[in-house]
Every structure is written in structure tokens, then in C-alpha cells.
Design brief:
Number of helices of chain A: 21
InterPro entries (chain B): CPA3_antiporter_subunitC, NUOK/Mnh_C1-like
Membrane topology (chain B): Multi-pass membrane protein
Oligomer: heterodimer
Protein name (chain B): Na+/H+ antiporter subunit C
Subcellular location (chain B): Cell membrane
Order of helices and strands of chain B: HHH
Order of helices and strands of chain A: HHEEHHHHHHHHHHHHHHHHHHH
Family (chain B): Belongs to the CPA3 antiporters (TC 2.A.63) subunit C family.
Largest sheet of chain B: none
Strand content of chain B: under 5%
Radius of gyration of chain A: 23 Å
CATH architecture of chain B: Orthogonal Bundle
Number of strands of chain B: 0
Structural class of chain B: mainly alpha
Helix content of chain B: 55-70%
Strand content of chain A: under 5%
Distance between the termini of chain B: 49 Å
CATH class of chain B: Mainly Alpha
Number of domains of chain B: 1
CATH topology of chain B: Helix Hairpins
Structural class of chain A: mainly alpha
Helix content of chain A: over 70%
């Protein structure tokens, strides 16, 4: 058993707990501890990606209990990719926050670490109840992070966010209770095995459980009727927190992939899944359309970015509901791209807002902007990447999604929704950019220069954003190895028997007896 | 016993859902509490309902499944702490927004 595997959970846990105990530490030490922990997480995530590339499934049995007893952590290519994405994103968010946003309230770095522990745990766990627990960990940390800094807007958005997620947790427990009552197990591999052999009479209840789970993960991922908490919450949160929240909707997507394709997917033809996918397809398309309209109607860059998150969720869930291996690989690539780029835009809204005289990131306010050229070029490059134009990762991922969806039925709906929402994003971003950067006659040039003198450009913040855009560019540059890796990941997801065998192989071969 | 449990579950859940849909934060918090009670009871009953059989092996012929009890314990801890958190949050929001409406403002205030 390789103890490195549990490190992505243990490191943030210990760092966060230490930071809580040592709350008297000055902010410099807190920052270096937080950044150090995130750097370690990146290193372990790289190890995890390499390890998953060598061995399909790496197991970690907590307390050395043989699965299906006890809790098991499972590392495969999908979870390793998500771990690396989370680690990189958190590093940038903590770096950005260390320039001042973490001073708005106390315990920022500790909360960040607990948040990371929850996210990493949700990606690694192979047990459904443990998934619930890690969801709660990441949610509790996110409640506090959302409210971090205080203020009326955050209290208002926080109340909605907390209440809908508490109702979601209640539904999650109902679904878990139902599944346990039917199958007598909560280990994902064992669940898959039992569900595949479940008698016909259990099917309605299994369907009810899977639909309940869809609602739960739909709340996390912001699927159509359950997404109205998102724009307000994401635009109220401070910039680095909102940037980290870009991964939170993807946790919902990841949970759907794991649960619907692996746990309910082992059965021949997966009858319990058909209902879920039939619901998911139209709702994801409408989510996508609504996101596009929201992007066009948003009054500030943060709200616009929140709606771009919704667009990305719509694309991911629509591709998931088509139930195809190639398409899943393509949408995983899109997941990497969209998470990084929406995070870039949350940070960029804050960065540009700081150098505007008035109005922060609102479009309706015309005000002089200092460092117009630097910020304008960063915005232009980021907008090109976000709008999925070449040569950035967005273009590669969307082209791949469109190409691999062509053999499937109803692909024109997907094409139309993706292309039109892309067009709306281009329109909204170019309107925002031209309003801010191309109105020299309305700035009094002298005033802008006076502002620029007093406010020097924050190089660390700008560099953080630039490095994130560079990652999006290098994703496109090194697309081939990434695509190969993600294709292998999708292939593993669509072979749930391999997952079940890796987790339960020993147990089944011993005839259901536990080895001492 | 099944009937009693089923009726209790139904009453707890339906009152919980009704209260969650109310417009004031206090009733929403009460609704969340009732809903989580209902969920805990449901989770507990998923280990099948029997009498006089403790969750200890060797004491009696037929022992109950101990796992749902462990799950309920975890769920109780989480829901209890979350209730405490949401009460504080609701108070904070009511003080800051000067309104205990869940939206922070009463949409019909002007008409009254």
C-alpha cells in the first residue's frame, strides 16, 4: 500500500488544523504555510497523474480493511487529472489572495486548506457515504469562504447558497439510505456489482435513488432548475474564492460520472441510467441556452463569468448525457480548459476593477482606467481563449467535442447550442472589452495618468493571471499527450468491470471471505 | 411499528418541505431541522425494523445491522452543526440586511 496516495487529503487537513491552532501567526507566515501546502499538493498531484498512467487503479485501504468493508480510496486517471487541476488552481488562488484579499477577514488560509481537503477527498474516495462526508467538508469550508470579508451582498448570497445546499445534503442522505436499504453496501464497486444483479422488482426504487442523486449533484453542478443560487453567490465572493469555486461545479460533474457511469453502469444496458440520461439531456441543453442569455445580459464582469460557468456546466452535462466514450474524453479536456479560464476571468474582473476609477467591474459605469494597455492586452488574450478561438485550449476542446458528437443521434442540437452560446460569449466579451479599453475620448487622459501614478500595477497579481492563461495555451500546444491521457481515462470509466475487479477482486476470489 | 415510522417520516418531511418554502428565514431554518430529523429517521430505519435485537454480535440470535446507526450518528453530527451555523448566518443576515426575508428584502413591502 502506497501512503503517498492519501497525502492530497492529509496535507491540507494538517496545514488547515495547524493554521487554526496557530491563529496568532502573522499573515506572512500564514501565507507561506498556505502556499507551501499548495505547492506540495501540486507535487503529489503530478505524482498521482504519473502513477495513474502506469497502473490503471491504485487502491488505498484505510485502516487496512479489505474492501467492501471499510473505506477505500481509488486513484485512476480521471481522479488524478482532477487532483492536478485542483492543485494548480488552488496554488494560483492562494498566490493571488496573498496579495491582500486574505486580509479582509480571518482564517482565510485555514479555510482554503479545508476546502481543498474536501475537494481532494471527493475525487479520491471509493465509498458513497464517504463522498457525502467529503461533500460536507468542502461545503462547510465554502460557506465560510463565500462569507469571507463580510458585507451585505455576501450575507444575502450566502443565505441562499447555504439553504439550498443543506436541502441538497438531506436529499443525498435519502438517496444513500435508499441505496443501502436495497443493496446493503455503500462501497462504489460493491454497489455496482449488487445493482447489476438486482432483481427486477428493485428497479423502480433504484431509479428513484439515482434520480435523487442526480438532483443532489445537479445542485452542486448547477443544472437548470437548481442553478439560480450560482450567479449571485459567485459574483458576491471575493475574487480568489470565486476562482476556486470554478472547480466546485466540476465536482458535481465528476460525481455524476463516477456514480452514473460506474456505480449504475455495470448492469447490461444500465436501465437505471436511462431515466437519468433522458432527464439530463434536455435540462443540460436549456442550462446551456440560459447561460448564453445570462452572459449577454450580465451587468458586471463577475456576473458574466458566473454565467460562463453555467455555460460550461451545460456543455459538460450535455456531453455526459450522450453516454459516449469519445465524447466523455473530449468533455474532460473541455473541463480542464473551462475551469482554468473561468477562474482567470474571476481574477481578471478583480484586477481590472482595482484600476478603474469608479464602478469596479460594472459595465454601465464609464470611468478612466489606468494601465489600459497591459490590462487590455491580457483581457484580449483571455477573451480569445475563453471564446474558444484558436490557438488556445478552448478551440481544441470544442472542436474535439463537436467532432466526436457527430456520429451520435441528435448531434445537431448539441452543435447548435454550443456554437450559439460561443457566439454569445464572443459578443458579450467584445462589448465588455471595447467599452472598457476603447473609449479614450471619454477618459480624461490627464486624470487617468494621475491615477496611474498613484496606483502602480500589481505585478504579482498580473503575473498570476498571465501564467494561468499560459497554461491554457500550453494545453493546446501539448494537446496530443493530454488527449491520449484523457482518452485512456474515459476508456477506464466506460469499463466499470475493471473498477469493480480492481477493488473487489481479492474479496471475490476468496469466495466472499475476508482475509485476515 | 412500520406504520408509525412511515407516518412520522411523512409528517416530518412534509412539514419540513412546507416550512423550507416559507419566506422568512426562521421558518426555513425550522424546516431544515425537521427535514434532517426525517432523513435521520429514514436512514435509521433502512437497517430494517426489529425489536429486542441490539447491534452487537453474539448477544442474541438476530442482531441488527450496526452500519445505519453509525451513518445516522455521522449525519446527526453534520446536520446539528449545520443547523447551528445556519441560525447564526440567518441572524447575521437579518441584522445586516434589516430584514428576515430569505431574499434580504420583502418584495411586497411597498404594497403593504
Amino acid at each position: 500500500m502506497n501512503h503517498l496516495m492519501i497525502m492530497p487529503i492529509v496535507i491540507p487537513l494538517l496545514t488547515g488544523a495547524f493554521l487554526l491552532v496557530m491563529y496568532r501567526y502573522n499573515i506572512g507566515r500564514q501565507r507561506s504555510l498556505g502556499i507551501g501546502s499548495c505547492l506540495l499538493l501540486v507535487i503529489f498531484a503530478i505524482w498521482a497523474v504519473l502513477q495513474a498512467g502506469v497502473t490503471d487503479y491504485t487502491l488505498y485501504r484505510l485502516g487496512n480493511w479489505q474492501p467492501p468493508f471499510g473505506i477505500v480510496l481509488v486513484l485512476d486517471r480521471l481522479s488524478a487529472t482532477m487532483l492536478l487541476l485542483t492543485a494548480l488552481l488552488s496554488l494560483f488562488c492562494v498566490l493571488y489572495a496573498s496579495r491582500g484579499s486574505d486580509r479582509e477577514g480571518s482564517h482565510f488560509h485555514a479555510l482554503m486548506q479545508f476546502q481543498l481537503m474536501g475537494i481532494n477527498g471527493a475525487f479520491l474516495t471509493g465509498d458513497l457515504f464517504n463522498l457525502f462526508v467529503f461533500f460536507e467538508v468542502l461545503l462547510i469550508a465554502s460557506y465560510a469562504l463565500l462569507l469571507h470579508g463580510g458585507g451585505r451582498a455576501r450575507s444575502r448570497a450566502g443565505l441562499h447558497y447555504v439553504i439550498i445546499n443543506l436541502a441538497g445534503s438531506a436529499l443525498f442522505l435519502l438517496a444513500l439510505g435508499l441505496l443501502y436499504g436495497l443493496t446493503g453496501t455503500l462501497n462504489m464497486a460493491d454497489l455496482a456489482r449488487v445493482i447489476a444483479n438486482a432483481p427486477e422488482s428493485d428497479l423502480p426504487l433504484l431509479k428513484a435513488a439515482s434520480l435523487l442523486l442526480m438532483v443532489v449533484f445537479g445542485i452542486k453542478a448547477a443544472l437548470l432548475p437548481l442553478l439560480f443560487w450560482l450567479p449571485r453567490a459567485y459574483s458576491a465572493a471575493s475574487a480568489p474564492v470565486a476562482a476556486l469555486f470554478a472547480i466546485m461545479t466540476k465536482v458535481g460533474f465528476y460525481a455524476m460520472v463516477r456514480v452514473f457511469l460506474v456505480v449504475f453502469g455495470l448492469d447490461e444496458g444500465a436501465p437505471a441510467n436511462d431515466t437519468v440520461m433522458a432527464w439530463l439531456w434536455p435540462m443540460a441543453l436549456i442550462t446551456l441556452a440560459l447561460g448564453g442569455i445570462g452572459v449577454l445580459g450580465a451587468a458586471s464582469l463577475r456576473t458574466l463569468t458566473a454565467y460562463m460557468v453555467i455555460v460550461s456546466v451545460g456543455i459538460l452535462l450535455a456531453t455526459l448525457s450522450r453516454n459516449d466514450e469519445q465524447l466523455l474524453a473530449a468533455s474532460l479536456f473541455y473541463l480542464l480548459h473551462s475551469t482554468i479560464m473561468t477562474a482567470v476571468f474571476f481574477l481578471l474582473a478583480d484586477l481590472i476593477g482595482r484600476y478603474r476609477d469608479d464602478g469596479y467591474d460594472r459595465f454601465s459605469v464609464i470611468s478612466p482606467l489606468s494601465h489600459r494597455w497591459v490590462l487590455g492586452s491580457v483581457f484580449l488574450v483571455a477573451a480569445i481563449s475563453m471564446a474558444s478561438l484558436p490557438p488556445f485550449s478552448g478551440f481544441v476542446s470544442k472542436a474535439w467535442i463537436l467532432q466526436s458528437s457527430t456520429p451520435l443521434p441528435d448531434y445537431l442540437w448539441l452543435w447548435g447550442a454550443i456554437l450559439i452560446s460561443g457566439l454569445l460569449i464572443i459578443a458579450a466579451l467584445s462589448r465588455a472589452g471595447s467599452g472598457w479599453f476603447w473609449r479614450p475620448e471619454e477618459h480624461s487622459a490627464a486624470k487617468a495618468r494621475a491615477v496611474a501614478k498613484t496606483q502602480r500595477l500589481d505585478y504579482a497579481r498580473t503575473a498570476t493571471v498571465c501564467v494561468m492563461i499560459a497554461i491554457s495555451f500550453s494545453l493546446a500546444l501539448f494537446a496530443q499527450p493530454v488527449m491520449d491521457y484523457l482518452e485512456a481515462a474515459a476508456r477506464l470509466v466506460y469499463q466499470p468491470s475493471g473498477y469493480v475487479d480492481a477493488v473487489l477482486g481479492d474479496y471475490v476470489r476468496q469466495g466472499g471471505e475476508v482475509s485476515p | 411499528m412500520e406504520l408509525v415510522i412511515a407516518i412520522t417520516l411523512g409528517v416530518l418531511t412534509s412539514t419540513g418541505v412546507y416550512l423550507i418554502l416559507r419566506a422568512r428565514t426562521f421558518s426555513v431554518v425550522l424546516g431544515l431541522t425537521l427535514l434532517s430529523h426525517g432523513v435521520n429517521l429514514f436512514l435509521f430505519s433502512m437497517g430494517r425494523l426489529t425489536t429486542a435485537s441490539p447491534a452487537v454480535i453474539g448477544l442474541v440470535e438476530e442482531y441488527t445491522d450496526p452500519l445505519p446507526q453509525a451513518l445516522v450518528l455521522t449525519a446527526i453530527v453534520i446536520s446539528f452543526s449545520m443547523t447551528a451555523f445556519v441560525v447564526v448566518l440567518a441572524l447575521k443576515a437579518a441584522v445586516e440586511l434589516r430584514s428576515d426575508h430569505v431574499d434580504g428584502e420583502d418584495p411586497n413591502e411597498d404594497r403593504q
